[in-house]
Design goal:
Elements (H helix, E strand, L loop, with lengths): L4 E9 L2 H20 L7 E7 L3 E4 L12 H6 L3 E4 L6 E4 L3 E7 L9 H18 L5 E3 L2 E6 L5 E11 L2 E9 L19 E2 L2 H5 L5 H17 L1 E2 L1
Parallel strand pairs: 1-2, 1-12, 3-4, 9-11
Antiparallel strand pairs: 2-6, 3-5, 6-10, 7-8, 8-9, 9-10
Helix pairs in contact: 3-5
């Protein structure tokens, strides 16, 4: 059987709500294709950045947003409650956001394996730059171990009829000061970092995109179109 086909969408810097609506459109199209009997609908992989925004997942606690409305206005940030799993996180310029809209019936029907593959794609990408990132048992995400450990990528997904949406927030050249306005992912005893912070110099985001997509192709086994 041929490999699943995945279309790449590099949207650049795009408003969070606009990207969310675009995700929903593609997500619903894949589900409708499956309902109509198509066993191999086209999947999608969205890459983008967002203007400053905080998003709260279904299992999140709103008190983990430390900024009030006035503070959000002062720092030019928005806030959305959304339909992914997980708690609160931040997206902003310099952070690579990855939204796979995959029909897992074409890959494997195991959401935990799916999450581990997403994490592994980031681990392999940062290793290219000489940064050793790992998982922490019991916690979703990719971490630089230390005292305290530092999260370099956050994950939150939605899955319906084995079709996924939402995904990865990977801190590449992110302004980490924006994380001071939240309790990231509801975890108060660990810090947040970025690839640029670990390397003490800016990173070529285009190169990171290529490396991460190549890692995902290798891990998931799909053909990019």
């Amino acid at each position: 059987m041929s490999l699943p086909n995945v279309r790449l969408h590099d949207l650049g810097l795009i408003d969070y709500k606009e990207a969310w609506d675009y995700q929903e459109k593609l997500f619903n199209e894949v589900i409708e294709e499956k309902r109509s009997g198509n066993q191999r609908p086209l999947c999608h992989l969205i890459l983008c950045e967002h203007p400053h925004v905080y998003t709260l997942g279904k299992s999140g606690v709103v008190d983990n947003l430390l900024a009030d409305e006035r503070r959000l206005e002062d720092i030019d940030a928005r806030f959305y409650k959304i339909n992914r799993g997980g708690d609160i996180t931040y997206h902003g310029p310099g952070q690579l956001v990855i939204y796979p809209i995959f029909d897992l019936d074409q890959f494997f029907t195991d959401i935990h394996k799916y999450m581990r593959f997403l994490e592994e794609s980031v681990i392999q990408t940062v290793l290219y730059f000489g940064v050793n990132a790992q998982r922490i048992e019991g916690l979703t995400g990719v971490w630089i171990l230390g005292n305290p450990s530092r999260k370099i990528a956050a994950f939150g997904v939605k899955c319906s009829r084995w079709v996924t949406m939402h995904g990865i927030g990977f801190n590449v050249n992110t302004d980490l000061r924006y994380f001071n306005q939240i309790v990231p992912c509801g975890i108060s005893d660990k810090e947040v970092t970025s690839l640029a912070n670990e390397l003490t110099e800016p990173v070529d985001l285009a190169q990171v995109k290529k490396l991460l997509v190549a890692s995902m192709i290798n891990l998931f086994g799909f053909e990019l179109i």
